[in-house]
Specification:
About 30% of the residues lie in helices and about 25% in strands. By secondary structure, the chain is an alpha/beta fold. Among the domains are: about 80 residues, Luciferase, Domain 3 (Luciferase, domain 3); about 170 residues, Rossmann fold (3-Layer(aba) Sandwich), CATH 3.40.50.980; about 100 residues, ANL, C-terminal domain (GMP Synthetase, Chain A, domain 3), CATH 3.30.300.30. Strands 10-9-6-4-5-11-12-22 form an eight-stranded mixed beta sheet, sandwiched between helices. Strands 1, 20, 21, 23, 24 and 25 form a six-stranded antiparallel beta sheet that branches. Strands 3-2-14-13-15 form a five-stranded mixed beta sheet, sandwiched between helices. The longest helix is centred in the N-terminal third of the chain and has 17 residues. The two termini are about 35 Å apart. Homodimer. Its cofactor is Mg(2+). It catalyses: 3-(methylsulfanyl)propanoate + ATP + CoA = 3-(methylsulfanyl)propanoyl-CoA + AMP + diphosphate. Keywords: Ligase, Magnesium, Metal-binding.
C-alpha cells in the first residue's frame, strides 16, 4: 500500500491496524493498567525514578491541584521550562482535565515570550526560574511588573491581560507567583472520581496542545494538535522502532518540541517503555552516562547530537552495546555519520523520520531493516493512515521521481493555527497540509526531501525562518536593509548569515549586532556570518537575489558553494 498510485508521486499508508480513538487520559489509564509496576521515568540529574503507578499518581495530584486554582477544560496552560520532571507531569496533567498545554521554547527572549503568551491567551504559566544564562523570572517581571504587588493567582497585567497565574518550579516563589509544590499539595489525595468525570467528557478530537512554529512571514504560529493526532503518531513511530516494554528510551531532545513530547514521551508510554532523561538540556557526556547506566536500547536526537557524542573525548570508555534503535530527525544525516552511529554506537536499527509540527509530527519514517543507503538518502516511506503527494506549482500531482511540493493528509494534520484562520486556510486546503518542502517520491514509495519551497533553513535541527530575523534586524537604528539566509555548515548543517546595508554615517560591528540580537531572539537564530555592504544583488524587478548573496559569502569565507 505504500507504493505510488498509478505511477504518480502519491502514496497512502497501510490501514491494516485501526487508529486509536481515545483521549490521552483515557489512553494512559490503559497504560497504567498494563504497565503500572514497571519503571516509567528516570531523571538522571535528580536521581528520581517513577513507576507508571507513581507517574499517574503524581499526574492526578497535579491535575487536581490545577483544578483547585481555577484551571479548566479549554484553558491554555503555558510551560516555559527545560526538560524537568515537572514538564512530564504537566504534559499529562493538563490533558487529564482537558486544558491545552502551550509549549514555549526555553530559548525565547522577552518579545517572543510575550507574543506566545498573548496570542494563545495563556491564563496559567508554569515556569522554571532560569535555564543556562537566561533569567526567566526577570523576563516575566519585565513583561508583568504587576507581579510585584499581585496576590498569587490573581494577576492583572496590562501587557498580558489573560495571564492570571504564574507557577514557579523550584525555590521560593517570586512575588505574585505560587510554587509548583503548593499546587501539587492542593491536589492532596486526588479526588479521582471528579477527575474521571472530567476525562469522560473529553473528546479525542479536542485541542490539547499548541506548539509555536515560526512562519515565513516572521510571525510565530500556534500549531494546534488534538489527543487523537499525537497519540496515533506516537504509536506509529513506536511501532516503526519496534519498541516493547523491555526497551528503555533515552530522551535528550527538548520536550517543547514534538520530537520530545510525542516521539519521546508518548511513544514510550504507548508500549510501557522506560523513559530516561539525561538532564535539563542536551549534554553529550550526560547522555552517554545515562545510556550506559540505564541500559538504554533506544536513543533520539538530531544528527549534530549524535556527532557530539561520537566526538566526545570520553566516548570510548562507555559501553553502549545495549543500544539498538531510536529516531534521528531534524536534518539530513550524512552517510559517514550514519555508519558511525550504526557501528560505533550499536544503533543498527536507527530510523530516520520526517515531519513537521503541523503534522503531529511524523509522516515518513524509515524501517529498521531498510538498508543504510536508504536511511541517508531518504526519509523512508509513508506512515500508516497517512496520505502524501508531490505537486507542481499548478497543484497537479507529479509523476514518480519528479520534484515538487510535498502535501500531507490524514489524522495527523493539525486542527489549525491557533487564532489564525487566514494562515490556516493558506496552509490546509481540502484537508491537505502544504508543507512548503520540496520532495520526490520514488517507485518504491521512498521520499527524499530535496529542498524548501520557502527560505527556511535548518540549523542543528532548529527551524529558522529568515523573515522573522529580517524583521528584527531592520528595527536596529543603524540598519537600512537586511537579508537573511543559510550557509552550509559541517557541524550544524546550515548556519545563519545576514547581508546588511547600514544607514548613512552609521558604524556597526558584527559583534555588536550579534550581542544586540541575543537580547531579542533565541540564540540559534542569531546570525553567525554577517556581511556589511553598500548594496545587494537584485533582480530586474528589484527583488533581492539571496542565492547570489549566499554564493558571494561562501566564496569570501572559503565555503564550498552548494550546487
Amino acid at each position: 500500500m505504500t507504493r505510488p498510485i498509478n505511477g504518480l508521486s502519491h502514496v497512502k499508508g497501510s490501514t491494516a491496524r485501526p487508529l486509536i480513538n481515545a483521549t490521552i487520559p483515557g489512553f494512559m489509564a490503559e497504560v497504567r493498567r498494563r504497565y503500572g509496576d514497571r519503571v516509567a521515568a528516570v531523571f538522571s540529574q535528580t536521581g528520581e525514578r517513577w513507576s507508571y503507578h507513581d507517574l499517574m499518581r503524581r499526574v492526578d495530584r497535579l491535575a487536581a491541584g490545577l483544578l483547585s486554582i481555577g484551571v479548566y477544560k479549554g484553558d491554555r496552560v503555558g510551560i516555559w521550562s527545560p526538560n524537568r520532571p515537572e514538564w512530564v507531569l504537566a504534559q499529562f496533567a493538563t490533558a487529564r482535565i482537558g486544558a491545552i498545554l502551550v509549549n514555549i521554547n526555553p530559548s525565547y527572549q522577552s518579545a517572543e515570550l510575550h507574543y506566545a503568551l498573548h496570542h494563545a491567551g495563556v491564563s496559567t504559566l508554569i515556569t522554571a526560574p532560569r535555564f543556562r544564562d537566561s533569567d526567566y523570572l526577570a523576563k516575566l517581571q519585565e513583561l508583568a511588573p504587576e507581579l510585584a504587588t499581585a496576590r498569587p493567582g490573581h494577576l492583572q497585567s496590562e501587557k498580558l491581560p489573560k495571564l492570571r497565574r504564574v507557577i514557579q518550579l523550584g525555590g521560593d516563589p517570586m512575588p505574585g507567583a505560587m510554587s509548583f509544590d503548593e499546587v501539587m499539595s492542593r491536589g492532596g489525595a486526588a479526588p479521582k472520581a471528579r477527575l474521571d468525570g472530567i476525562t469522560a467528557g473529553l473528546s479525542p478530537d479536542d485541542a490539547i496542545n499548541i506548539q509555536f512554529t515560526s512562519g515565513t512571514t516572521g510571525r510565530p504560529k500556534g500549531a494546534t494538535l488534538s489527543h487523537r493526532s499525537i497519540i496515533n503518531n506516537a504509536i506509529s513511530s513506536a511501532r516503526a522502532m519496534r519498541l516493547t516494554p523491555d526497551d528503555a528510551l533515552c530522551i535528550p531532545v527538548p520536550l517543547y518540541h514534538c520530537f520530545g513530547m510525542v516521539l519521546g514521551n508518548l511513544a514510550a508510554v504507548s508500549y510501557g517503555v522506560k523513559m530516561v532523561f539525561p538532564g535539563e538540556g542536551f549534554d553529550p557526556l550526560a547522555t552517554l552516562k545515562a545510556v550506559e547506566a540505564e541500559g538504554c536500547t533506544a536513543l533520539h536526537g538530531v544528527p549534530t547530537m549524535f556527532a557530539a557524542m561520537l566526538d566526545h573525548p570520553d566516548f570510548d570508555r562507555f559501553d553502549l552495546r545495549s543500544l539498538r534503535t531510536g529516531i534521528m530527525a531534524g536534518s539530513i544525516c550524512p552517510a559517514p555519520l550514519m555508519k558511525r552511529v550504526m557501528e560505533g554506537m550499536h544503533c543498527r536499527d536507527i530510523t530516520i523520520g520526517y515531519g513537521m509540527t503541523e503534522t503531529s509530527p511524523i509522516s515518513f519514517q524509515t524501517a529498521p531493516d531498510d538498508p543504510p543507503a536508504r536511511r541517508v538518502s531518504t526519509v523512508g516511506r509513508v506512515q500508516p493512515h497517512v496520505e502524501c503527494k508531490v505537486i507542481d506549482t499548478e497543484g497537479r500531482t507529479l509523476p514518480v521521481g519528479q520534484q515538487g511540493q510535498l502535501l500531507t493528509k490524514g489524522y495527523l494534520v493539525m486542527k489549525g493555527y491557533w487564532n489564525d484562520p487566514e494562515f490556516t486556510a493558506e496552509a490546509i486546503r481540502d484537508g491537505w497540509m502544504h508543507t512548503g518542502d520540496l520532495a520526490t517520491i520514488d517507485a518504491e514509495g521512498y521520499c527524499q526531501i530535496t529542498g524548501r519551497a520557502g527560505d527556511m533553513l535548518i540549523r542543528g535541527g532548529e527551524n529558522v525562518y529568515p523573515a522573522e530575523i529580517e524583521e528584527l534586524l531592520v528595527t536596529h537604528p543603524d540598519i537600512a536593509q537586511a537579508q537573511v539566509f543559510g550557509l552550509p555548515d559541517a557541524r550544524l548543517g546550515e548556519e545563519v548569515a545576514a547581508w546588511i546595508i547600514l544607514r548613512p554615517g552609521a558604524a556597526l560591528t558584527a559583534e555588536a549586532l550579534q550581542d544586540w540580537c541575543r537580547e531579542r531572539i533565541a540564540r540559534f537564530k542569531v546570525p553567525r556570518h554577517i556581511r556589511f555592504a553598500d548594496d545587494m544583488p537584485l533582480t530586474a524587478t528589484g527583488k533581492p537575489q539571496k542565492f547570489r548573496m549566499r554564493d558571494m559569502m561562501c566564496q569570501d569565507l572559503g565555503i564550498a558553494i552548494p550546487s
